[in-house]
Amino acid sequence: MHGAAALLIDFGSTYTKLRAIDLDRRIVLASGQGPSTVATDISVGMRVALEDLGRRLGRLPQFRYRLGSSSAAGGLRMVTVGLVRELTAEAARRAALGAGAKLVGTYAYRLTAADMASILALRPDILLLAGGTDGGNSEVILHNARMLGSSALDCPIVYAGNRAAWDSAKDLLAGKMAVCAENVMPEFNVLNIEPARAAIREIFLERIVHAKGIDRARDECDAVLMPTPAAVMDGARLLADGHGSTPGLGELVVIDPGGATTDVHSVASGQPRVPGVVQRGLPEPRVKRTVEGDLGMRHNAAAIGEMAGIPALAADARLPEGTVSRLIGELARDVDRLPRDAEERALDRALGRAALRCAMKRHCGSVETVYTALGPATAQTGKDLSGVEVVVGTGGVIAHSRAPLELLETVVAVPTEPESLRPRDPRFLVDREYLLYACGLLAQAEPEAALELALKYLKAPTEVLTDDIVANG
Amino acid sequence: MPATTPRTIVTGVIGSDTHIVGNRILSMALEKAGYKVVALGALTPAPEFVKAAVETNADAILVSSLYGQGELDCRGFRELCIEAGLDAILLYVGGNLIVGKHPWDVVERIFLDMGFDRAAAPGMRVETVLEWLAQDFAARERAPRRQAG
Questions:
Q1: Is the ipTM of this complex over 0.85?
Q2: Residue A471 has what pLDDT?
Q3: Model-level pTM?
Q4: How far is CA B86 from CA A108, A380, B49, B57, in A?
Q5: Of the candidates A86, A140, A372, which has its C-beta nearest B16's C-beta?
Q6: Which parts of chain A register pLDDT below 70?
Q7: Distance separating the N- and C-terminal Cα atoms of chain B
Q8: How many angstroms separate the CA of residue A372 from the nearest CA in chain B?
Q9: CATH architecture assignment, domain B8-142
Q10: A447: closest CA among A457, A438, A439?
Q11: What is residue A238's three-state secondary structure?
């Protein structure tokens, strides 16, 4: 007999993935998978996945919750607009990434006619409009509101710029669906992305899910709560911070290499750890997501080859350079291909190692020595994650790997790059069951159970991999 | 902008200079006088002053330099502002601006030629700076130059 159960659904771009959870015993009952059928009717793939789950369970239990996340239909496509590139434009970017969006365009300063044409061509699901501190520059955001207001753009607009200019901006945006959130930068160099993130998620829940046809699965799913990257982020946050009387793991980093991009989430203050170090640039959010759009194992295999260099990849894979070049070309044309032999496995391992190393390096901050009249001083840009004790690997590349430690070990700091503030000596955990997104979703309803599941199912990479998990992965 | 909105002033110590005390006293005095102060602190590169002024729609930038490299650090400052659309912003500079013994009028001329509206000699009192600001803002209200944006 099963106790109360929950069904967590990931409407992905290729697969519809299900996890059935026993809420009382806090275990995964089974996983199911179907194709992604968002282009026609998403509920078709959902029913295939449910049948698959039913076969594994014997019969489907009554689910107390059926919660979904989605990266189908291109994910949550967003465009951000700000004023100065390093200030409000960057703050807007961070808000959108934090909401789990796929950033398809970022703009700064005044939008031109050419910018407007490219925004229309990008067909964003939501546009985030920022610019000016509260009471600061209003001219540019009003110009941009006028450009957007008089364009054919029909997506919702979240206004998170100079509060003093909202009344005028609202008039300029008449006829558009526009909501006002708190400024992403209310004071100079003060980051305030939480309200904009909340506004984005609300629009996602209320409008985007319907616009993309994801709510056609409503007979099988109670609510699609957020984009999948946001669910992974919520899972990471829960795992770090704990819930109630159950402590979390403390500061951590989650790394998620995929076919097109590599996501990195950190839940850590990232403040300088050494006294006297001066922090430069925009303050860093404690929960931060970066997306490396050029580091994907399939769609961007060629970009990884360019970034790491074919000779280095060949040396790491122990393959001839010619073989590496040929295989990379094949992968880019055949993005759904799984490794078929030892050569392809070796290349995938090398690509994964290069992508993880580079994605972690870009996510983490760095220090540089600046020479002042009083002698050298140290300036830090970005987050210092050198003391982070836990790094979690998630996503198919790591979960399917026979030796995930060989992938994950590349993210740590190296003596030849002392300026990079990557984790020095973390312990690794692997999300073998692809459960982190499910825990992030379940956290909305039953955070205690979600946390216990995450703690139970994230495993050290050295633990023996059973054939069963490989088969079901 | 309504008359009740305080004017915004960006302050900071330019270049690789860590001497923050005088700049902090100045920032506190400006705040006390009713200005909204965006204090960037020590070790501030010139472009950061300009970016801060753009976002906050600042009315003036007050640059401090105490370690003798002011001439190098401030070269092109006005041009940076013009590039960012801040053509009319008020620019002051002050401190120990140049190494060695030079008559003040020579030093002052160098910085005024660079496009600063005022240069403050070592030992300048805060009260004088406040008077300058009052005069210069009043003059701009009487004869507004083309507004930047």
A1: no
A2: 39
A3: 0.89
A4: 16, 29, 11, 9
A5: A372
A6: 1-2, 373, 463-473
A7: 14
A8: 5
A9: 3-Layer(aba) Sandwich (3.40)
A10: A439
A11: helix
Contact A254, A236 (CB under 8 A): yes
Angle (deg, nearest 10), helices A139-149 and A113-122: 60
User: What are the Cα distances from residue A159, in Å, to A150, A303, B11?
Assistant: 16, 35, 29
Cα distance between residue A336 and residue A73, in whole Å: 17
Structure tokens at A23: 């809420």
> Strands of A375-381's sheet, edge to edge?
A278-280, A375-381, A366-372
Tokens representing A363 are 């996510």
Cβ–Cβ < 8 Å for B12, B48? yes
User: A279 to chain B nearest CA, in Å?
Assistant: 11
Domain locations in chain B as residue ranges:
8-142
Give the DSSP letter of residue B148: P
Contact criterion met (CB < 8 Å) for A138 and B149: no
- Contact state of B55 with A132 under an 8 Å Cβ cutoff: yes
Structure tokens at A169: 């901006």
CA distance A30 to A53: 7
Instruction: Give helix then strand counts, H and E, for chain A.
Output: 17, 18
Name residues whose C-beta falls within 8 Å of residue A294's C-beta, 6 or more positions apart in sequence: A300, A303, A304, A307
Q: Which of B10, B17, B48, B56 to mutate to test the interface with A (most CBs of A within 10 A)?
A: B56
Q: Please give the structure tokens belonging to residue B147.
A: 């507004």
Domains of chain A in sequence order: 5-72+213-221 (3.30.420.40), 77-207 (3.40.50.360), 235-293+360-472 (no CATH)
> Which residue is it, tokens 């997104």?
A437
Residue A392 and residue A254: Cα distance in Å, rounded?
A: 5
Q: How far apart are CA A42 and CA A36, in angstroms?
A: 7
The CA distance from A129 to A126, in Å, is 10
Using one digit for the tens of pLDDT, what is the confidence trace for A432-455?
A: 989 999 999 999 999 999 999 999
Which H helix or E strand runs over A31?
Answer: strand A27-35
Residues A96, A78 contacting (CB under 8 angstroms): yes
Is any Cβ of chain B less than 8 angstroms from the Cβ of A245? no
Q: What are phi and psi of A320, to 5 degrees?
A: -65, 150
